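Folding Task

Wanted — backbone structure
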Amino acid sequence: MRVVCEILEKEYGIHFSYSRELVNLSRKVTVTEYRQRLKGVLEEVFAPENIRFTRVGDQIVLQQIIRTTRTISGYVQDGRSGEKLPGATIYSPALKQGTTTNQYGYFSFTTVKDTNSLIVSYIGYEPVLLPVSERGDRIVMVSLQPVANLKEVVVNASDNKLQDETQMSKITLPLSAMQSMPKLLGESDVMRTLQSMPGVSGGMDGAGNLHVRGGSPDQNLILMDGSTVFNFSHFFGVYSLLNTEIVKSTDLYKGAFPARFGGRLSSVVDITLKDGDMKHYHGDVAIGLISAKVNVEGPIIKDKTSFIVSARRSYPDLVYNTMLRSDDDLGREGALYAYFYDVNAKINHIFSPKDRIYFSIYKGEDNFLLKLAPDTLPVPDLSGRVVESSRLKFSWGNTIGALRWNHIYNPRLFSNTTINYSQYSFLTEYGIKYGRQATGEQVDQNTTYYSRMQNTSLKMDFDYRPDPQHSFRFGGAVVGHLFQPGVLDFEEKENNIKPLDTTGSGLKVKGMEFLLYAEDDWRLSTGLFVNIGVHASGFLVEGRFYNSLQPRLGVRYMLPRNWAVKGSYTHMNQYIHLLSRSAPSLPTDIWVPSTQRVAPMYSRQVALGIAKTTRNNMFEFSMEGYFKSMYNMIEYTDLSATTNVELTRWDEKVTIGKGWSYGGEAMIRKQKGSTTGWIGYTLAWSTRRFPGINNDQIFPYKYDHRHDLEIILSQKLGKYWELSASWHFTTGAPMTLPVSSYSGIESPSPWDPGFGEESHTRDRYDSRYNYRTENVHRLDVGITYTKQKKYWRKSWNLSVYNVYNQPNPFYYYIKRDDAEKQRYLSKVSVLPFLPSITYAIKF
């Protein structure tokens, strides 16, 4: 500051008069002004340091102001529904400082007593001037009213600008972005919208996976109201697990992970669900071509207790059965059932201004059942058996529950205590009845495979805000894990024998995880901000205790013209692994813990970027480069070996290596006006190295998508119509192809195609990821008509997925021509040109 004063004395011909004992000018400040009046410059320099200036002739007299403080805290909510608003801005014009609400809508702002008012704002709502009374610390409830000229307010984002946030590598997904995207089979989707962001890929077309910065799907921590979700898809990835109408906010962290998150290497998807309207009853119903959904919310006790319930069910099985039975493809007693359902319910109760409690549950399941009737397969096979009937069933699903307690200890200290339960399981059954012509023997065989992953946790999070310069978070958790990755049962009912039975000895492992964290968002000077934190964790499994100390650092420095340069370093640890052989992640993939031989995975990531939001919040621009190294990655040593058997020795069938991913991302987003959308581009590399594979050399891995481009546009057409379009391009990824095949001995597993036969075909591989798949690109469009009636609002949506019918691959397989003794690489495309229509009403 002393140097600034010397410059001003020379520039304006003035002199500063002050007492060195009373006024401190030793602090470092950064001032950027152009053609500014002297008074404005002096205010910017001295006001943040509580220094009063008075002009006396050609002298400026400086006096240190001794100010007492008060803390204003409370909640910011929607004035119509009482829904809490995360990310709302509270700003002091006098101090030129501000803060934001946390994910529960709570804020704490410490200011001087002579501050007259604060400005509270949120996009889509009218700003409010909050008076600061002469009383001491107090808790307030700030209600914001929707902008008057909007029939319905869609929460878009906070008023925070990118350059004002120390956090980098984070994307806040507006609810409006999900709702305006072209819909696949009539459904808007969280995961598909996230896939359209730079640095994120979905892999094969039609898959709902997330590959973030070269990571695998199991390296994504997906949280739903704080509960871990292990599989976030329906219909093998075509749909997301969650009805978007119940989502309040979604944050994606691709790096620079805050210390409060841990347990995964590549990303965090933090989804917060709506709490329910405290004042009015309302809901919505939507009917599409293959699914329908309903949402209802309202007060149980007005302004005290609310509820929200959301349910969804698909019905392709009803359509399929009608069509297939009419053609007699399944036989007189055959049937095909393929559907999913999910249900969300949440209760929110206010005990007092300082205490509130939330209880939420989720249940979702996919079911696939194919029955073939006795008259469909009467021809004997090569072994002389006649199949009478067969049945194949797949089912998988999640069960999630959470109980949360918010408490305000004092205006500066907020806490959230959560008990979470999360379970993911899948069941596979195959039954067949057949008789042998030679002996007249009747056989009824049934094979069952079951797997389960379960978490129960207790977590406490504290949010302490001593002053606008600091936002301090800390907390801890205890998590109990139950792994049951394989229970296999094979029996012949007629003969009352079990040639293969692992029901009693199936692998079942328990583990305990412990964690503590602390992080501080700290303003060091006018232009320099840091977020520094540490995440410490431990994992106890089968007598082995792993521990990890994970430092986190984020830095932001303000440049001229409101540009921010940001940097970060992140260390992450992951104690669980996903066993998978296929490129797309499937429901049958198996979760297993670290063992004596296979240590936890961990990664280190550094990133550097720039960001800016224009002054009127019209445009956002960001660009980042990153480098991530990953350790203790696993890969199967033998790709031709069978899966899902001998799981007690799974760690002996994998090799342990390293991985690297690096690249750059750029994004420009238009947030306001009749035309909105974004353009995102990613240039990335993802490589691995494993002992004994590809001659121990580094090679491109299956998540290596070199180029990725997304163009998303939404255009309002008059009062009732909205047009949307998205175009996506992704470079093909490496995959492994066999170089030859041979006839092997009888298969030891009922899951292999050759089980029960004298021989079967096995493939031979000489290297991994020796072929790159074709590029994927697709255009989707949608148009929505919306009209407000007196008591309800109706809408029609017509969407076309894959407009120019590009045959993008979902998976590849080897096709065999026995006559020519040749094999060919073939692909399966599951989502061609696909129109859909949805009718919805909101009341």
Q: What stands out?
A: The CA atoms of residues 42 and 53 lie 8 Å apart. The chain has a mean pLDDT of 82. The chain has five helices and 51 strands. The radius of gyration is 30 Å.
